[in-house]
Amino acid sequence: MSTLIKKRYGLLPGETGKFAGILSGFILLLAVLPILTMIVMSFSGASNLDFPPSSYSLQWYKAAWHTFVSPDASDVLSLGKAMTTSLMVACLTMVFATIVAVPAAYALTRCEFRGKAVALQLMSLPLVFPMVVLGLALLLVFDSLPFQITTSRLVIAHVILALPFVVKNCTAAMLSIGSEVEEAAQMLGASPTRAIIDVVVPLMKSGILAGMLLAFIVSFNEFTVTYFLYTIDVMTVPIWMYSRTVSSLDPTVFSFAVLIVLIDFVLIWALEKLVGEGGVSF
Amino acid sequence: MTGLILENVEKHYGSACAVKDVNLHLPEGKLVCFLGPSGCGKTTLLRMIAGLETLTGGEIRLDGEDIGHIPAHQRNFGMVFQSLALFPHMTVGENIAYPLKLRGVSKADQQARVVELLELIQLQEMIDRPVAKLSGGQRQRVAIARAIASRPKILLLDEPLSALDAKLRESMQVEIRQLQQRLNITTIMVTHDQREAMTMADIVVVLGEHRVQQVGTPIEIYRHPANEFVADFIGSGNIFPATALGNGKVSLPGGDALQVPICSSIVVGEKVKMLIRPEDLQLSQPQATAGNRLLGKVTFVRDIGATIETTVECSGVSFTALSTPCQDVGLSVGNPVSVTLPAEACRVLSA
């Protein structure tokens, strides 16, 4: 009976056919293909970059571990130091982007002011701005300063890049908070600032946390802009990996990459757990 | 003078006017209802009293002191919002204790007051429950308990029952009224539901077209509406045009004369509006016209069981009469009918 109905009416709204299934499977495959290639390559037993590898082994993981604990002389900088820089920059980016984004999100949702539309546009500009141009522009600005800043200029650049994501998540969280709860807190005796701290921020919590994690991920993976701004002593993991690939093309890089992707996966998983499905806007 | 006094209060948003010329004296311990259609400025007025909106003109005084410049959080007024605005990240107990925490009350005293209030609203066992796990009526009670926790000078209710279903609303009306009388707290409630206002209020302030239309007890407002707006908004009424003939007589559009209460401000020949409530009209089998008994024709009958609404065309006016089943004279559409308009039930409305 049910097959008969199906035949007569075809697909009902909300049902997908075989074709849609195959199509989405194919798109998903395209998305994970680079990651799969990388994982396969990291287990290569050969000493070149041929794909697929002729044999498999753990030799590159061994080499990677070796680089990590005792960097050889040919390396400009140890991975350990690059990792420390990356983590520090990512953490600082996370903190500063949040400090800027929370009040910004509040102002963008609660307040009516002239130029609000422009402010909104400017906020998401880094998303569409060519990274190379942004990197170059920042380099020019930082080089014209009368003093030298190294780590902090990476943080500044990363905050600019992470800000749209953090603001977007915080704004989404703000939108779900009615102004009445804030007014209620004030009626109960809380000053406007106290009302924000006691009521608005706790209710924004998931949005703030999502934004923080995103800021961390954006900063941790950032390459293009950082490429313009790194110095020989201060470089992040992606830069370190790239410079290593240029100098000696070996699959060690893939072993590192697997590690980094693993970290990213854990962070994104934490993000989803934290705010639930559909709660994060990228 | 004690109580809350509003003097020439007005609020403009740019060139748009929300309320103007509001002069009110709200005595202590009474429940005052701001009643009016949506967009009449009643919520704006309440928010100005709360301190959530600034005044663009006039003064608000509490016990002689101008409170216009005092920010909302220093007024110590309790308020229940339309959405209730309970804090979803806090438990019932934490919500109620919040105003006490802000005032630096000791933990033990906070706890004691929370328990006392929960007893008052009969939700003792809900103290550690998150507010999301409460029913609509329970949330309502928690919102009220939170609003009165710090013993505010005035309690403000902004359409607090609008989210509840009809049955629960009726019982909450009685509950809130009883609570208000027990605590003897000056309360201002905003509503667009006249039944709610009639049930709960000591004084009703009818607002319409951005100004106060009438202030009075519920019965005064119903029986003696000050103008056509109030007569039309409160209850259902037959409002019809007439011409003054002098000596307390008016003539209907169809020419029939009617005896009505003498109104000194009306001059002979003036066109006036009259009001008679549907329950005051008396229908009977056709008899000769005499006094205020006129002849008419039934045009519609709506029998909804508890009451029967009969629409009668009479002297150029369409009247609706309300009768109970035992008063029913068994009329159907097209029947001739006699309509009696008791003189004391007719009201001349000032234009």
UniProtKB/TrEMBL annotation, chain A:
It is found in: Cell inner membrane; Cell membrane. One of its GO terms (cellular component) is plasma membrane. Its main location: membrane. PROSITE patterns: ABC_TM1 (PS50928). It is a multi-pass membrane protein. Gene3D superfamilies: MetI-like (1.10.3720.10). The chain crosses the membrane at residues 21-43, 87-108, 120-142, 253-271. Residues 83-271 form the ABC transmembrane type-1 domain. Keywords: Cell inner membrane, Cell membrane, Membrane, Transmembrane, Transmembrane helix, Transport. GO terms for biological process: transmembrane transport. SUPFAM superfamilies: MetI-like. Belongs to the binding-protein-dependent transport system permease family. This is ABC transporter permease.
